[in-house]
């Protein structure tokens, strides 16, 4: 009995990991990339410091510096902008033949029956989906709202950290520091912002078009390999 129970527990453990493997793997990759960014960034920072005859900094000093924070925040805000625009855009915009799009003609918020809310909610539907009223209305837009809030917070963090980093350079050049309002209109702020935005918009657009003609067997981001290019969904 002990052997059977242990075997069952082991199988359950493997199954549990597999059920969350996508988030776990990408979480681990995120941590590794953050560590790599910190290590390489510190090396570059201290190399510049040695060249300028300045004191080197520790890892703790570097990861709490405005230089590290602004680089981190500008990447995060552009990613969450991408998701926010994509989530909202795909409600109303379609691309015939793309697995990244709804079928043409299905644009819009969709019916309560299709969304499983109100009297069409199931017993195992989320509580707020079954509650009705303002709670269901709020929950119906919770994904885009959360993505937009994280985007705005990280964009604000980019502005604050970017101003500090930019003013440090200005003071080294004996220039007057900028207040936050002035920095928000500066070339440094918008250069950092727009170079990230264009890369995210490019990724969204090309993915939508590539998914019409190209396939990746087994991926939910791709149509079945043998599905015709012009079909958006299997029942199209």
Description:
The chain has ten helices and no strands. The protein has 236 residues and is an all-alpha fold. It has two domains: 44 residues; 143 residues, no CATH class. Helix 4 packs antiparallel against helix 8 and helix 4 crosses helix 10. The chain is elongated, with a radius of gyration of 24 Å. The chain starts with a helix and ends in a 23-residue tail after the last helix. GO terms for molecular function: peptidase activity. Pfam families: DUF6766. This is Membrane protein implicated in regulation of membrane protease activity. InterPro entries: DUF6766.
Distance N to C terminus = 52 Å
* Structure class: mainly alpha
What is the helix content?
A: 55-70%
How many domains make up the 3D coordinates?
2
Order of helices and strands: HHHHHHHHHH
Label the overall shape: elongated
Largest sheet: none
What gyration radius follows from the Cα positions, in whole Å? 24 Å
Ranges where pLDDT stays below 50 over 5 or more residues in a row are: 1-11
In a few lines, what is going on in this structure?
This protein is an all-alpha fold and 236 residues long. The protein is built from 10 helices and no strands.
Question: Helices and strands in order, then pairings?
Answer:
Blueprint: H1 2-19, H2 21-51, H3 59-63, H4 66-92, H5 112-115, H6 127-131, H7 133-139, H8 142-172, H9 180-184, H10 187-213
Helix pairs in contact: 4-8, 4-10
InterPro entries: DUF6766
Protein name: Membrane protein implicated in regulation of membrane protease activity
GO molecular function, one term: peptidase activity
């Amino acid at each position: 009995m002990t052997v059977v129970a242990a075997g069952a527990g082991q199988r359950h453990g493997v199954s549990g990991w597999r059920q969350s493997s996508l988030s776990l793997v990408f979480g681990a990759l995120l941590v590794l990339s953050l560590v790599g960014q910190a290590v390489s960034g510190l090396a570059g920072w201290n190399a510049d410091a040695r060249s300028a005859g300045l004191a080197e900094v520790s890892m703790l000093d570097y990861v709490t510096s405005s230089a590290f924070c602004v680089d981190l925040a500008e990447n995060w805000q552009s990613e969450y902008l991408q998701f926010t625009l994509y989530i909202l855009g795909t409600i109303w915009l379609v691309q015939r033949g793309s697995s990244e799009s709804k079928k043409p003609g299905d644009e819009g918020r969709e019916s309560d029956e299709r969304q499983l809310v109100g009297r069409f909610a199931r017993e195992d539907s989320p509580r707020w989906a079954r509650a009705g009223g303002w709670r269901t209305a709020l929950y119906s837009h919770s994904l885009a709202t959360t993505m937009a809030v994280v985007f705005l917070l990280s964009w604000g963090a980019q502005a604050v950290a970017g101003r500090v980093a930019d003013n440090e350079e200005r003071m080294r050049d004996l220039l007057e520091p900028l207040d936050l309002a002035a920095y928000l209109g500066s070339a440094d702020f918008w250069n950092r912002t727009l170079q990230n935005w264009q890369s995210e918009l490019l990724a969204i657009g090309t993915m939508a078009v590539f998914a019409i003609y190209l396939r990746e067997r087994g991926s939910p981001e791709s149509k079945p390999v043998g599905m015709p290019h012009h079909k958006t969904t299997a029942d199209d």
